[in-house]
Amino acid sequence: MTNPVGRDSWPDEADQPPFKPLTAEEAKALKSKLPMVSPWRVLGTQALVGLLCTAVVWAVTQRSSAAWSALYGALAVVLPGALLARGMTRGTKSPVAAAVGFMFWEMLKIAAAIAMLVIAARVVPQLSWPALLITMVVCMKVNWLALAWRRS
């Protein structure tokens, strides 16, 4: 394959230092600088935000059906997320098994969330789709807070 610039090497190749794998000590030092946030902590925060959204919906609408819809929206995020967290925190030695496991648990999470949305109208009497969907979006957006929890 020819280089679009017409040189023997690609433009970025000469500018980059050669790849050097980390030693065990270097990897350990890097890992201590970048602590992981527990997925259970994120899920707990999502649940707390879901309850807060439910209270706000109740206060604004004064309708129990809207509050139940908001609560169900929070559950539609937290329960499937708990499936993923459970599957991913079991631990595995093989990187391939970890990747396959992640894909499996992520697909299961998505399927559970879709199933919960499909049965929502049967489970929640007088379902309020706006309350449910807004609460779901707010709960899903809590994930960015995980970055704030990381210690420097």
TrEMBL record:
<feature type="transmembrane region" description="Helical">
    <location>
        <begin position="66"/>
        <end position="85"/>
    </location>
</feature>
<feature type="transmembrane region" description="Helical">
    <location>
        <begin position="97"/>
        <end position="121"/>
    </location>
</feature>
<feature type="transmembrane region" description="Helical">
    <location>
        <begin position="127"/>
        <end position="149"/>
    </location>
</feature>
<keyword id="KW-0812">Transmembrane</keyword>
<keyword id="KW-0472">Membrane</keyword>
<protein>
    <submittedName>
        <fullName>ATP synthase subunit I</fullName>
    </submittedName>
</protein>
<dbReference type="Pfam" id="PF03899">
    <property type="entry name" value="ATP-synt_I"/>
</dbReference>
<keyword id="KW-1133">Transmembrane helix</keyword>
<dbReference type="InterPro" id="IPR005598">
    <property type="entry name" value="ATP_synth_I"/>
</dbReference>
<keyword id="KW-1003">Cell membrane</keyword>
<feature type="transmembrane region" description="Helical">
    <location>
        <begin position="40"/>
        <end position="60"/>
    </location>
</feature>
